[in-house]
Amino acid sequence: MASTGLSPVMAIENLNISPKPNWLELPRDITKNILQRLGTLEIVTSASVVCSLWWNICKDPLMWSTNDMFTGITIDEITDLFQPDSYFENFSRLEKICHYAVDRSCGHLKNLYINKFGTDDLLRHIAQSASHLRSMRLEKCYDISTAAFYEVVKNQPFLEELDIFHSFYEETEFFEHIGQSCPVLKSLKFSPYIETLDSKSDDVAFTIAKTMPKLRHLAILNNGLTNNGLLAILDGCPLLESLDVRGCLYLDLDGSLNQRCSEQIKELRFPSDSIDNKFKFDDYAIHVQLRMCSDLDDFDLSLVDQIQEII
């Protein structure tokens, strides 16, 4: 191979290498668009303290219209970030950050996602600070009472999407309250903590049919509704497009009911279809024990290895 006659250093200097981009030179609207794709925790603990420009962008209340603490970050990363002294140290810090983000939204909060760390105090603060929610998702929030939930929901007349997973709320009154408080609700997804059904009951189905006529998407898992309840939902929710009744084992979707679903529903999940992310009672039992031990000096360290299975 013929020699170029250039030393290695000169050869490198002659390479056409583009310089690294200066992110501070991006137009403000593009930078804002990028930052809005981060999760709330990342914005609070990282992005907002990078530089004065990003801090000023993050001062815009519209930057906080979505409060999602878990976008782009895992529980393990949160643990590494906070290095908590106990299991509930994480939750306490997450609640404070969520509270801070709600305040920064200045009433512009539209999307809320809380997983595990929610409390009555946090929900009541949201009820007082935000009245324009469009979507809300509560998952494994064992420490939130029905009364606190009612407080926040009654102030959300514009709520369109509500997801509640692994909840202890299952009374008819609970769904009636949602229907009466959220007149434009389009999507309801509900998965209780139970996995076995003791008896048939169409009370919840009749309540949904009566109070939620604008529903387009409904997921009601592990419920005791029968064919009569499902027919009531189909009649009372004529705009329904997707229906998820996994675990509703008292349904018999043969014959005319199956035909009715085929005509009205575009996407149907059947009672026998598998359920991902099932509720585990052992997880809840550990949560309760940890809650009881959180203020005690004799914390059971043997449970630490099981925490990662919970979160």
Give a structural overview.
This protein has 311 residues and is α/β, with parallel strands linked by helices. The protein is 42% helix and 12% strand. The chain has an 8-stranded parallel β-sheet with strand order 1-2-3-4-5-6-7-8, covered by helices on one side. The protein is elongated and about 75 Å long. It starts with 7 loop residues before the first helix and ends with a helix. The model is unreliable at 284-290 and 292-311 (pLDDT under 50).
Series of secondary-structure elements, N-terminal to C-terminal: HHHHEHHEHEHEHEHEHEHEHH
* DSSP summary, beta strand count: 8
Biggest sheet architecture: 8 strands, parallel
Q: Estimate the strand proportion.
A: 5-15%
Large-scale geometry: elongated
The amount of helix comes to 40-55%
Tally of alpha and pi helices: 14
Q: What's the mean pLDDT score?
A: 80
Low-confidence stretches: 284-290, 292-311
Largest sheet, spatial ordering of strands? 1-2-3-4-5-6-7-8
Structural class of the secondary elements?
alpha/beta
End-to-end Cα distance, whole Å, is 60 Å
Query: Over all CA atoms, what is the radius of gyration?
Result: 25 Å
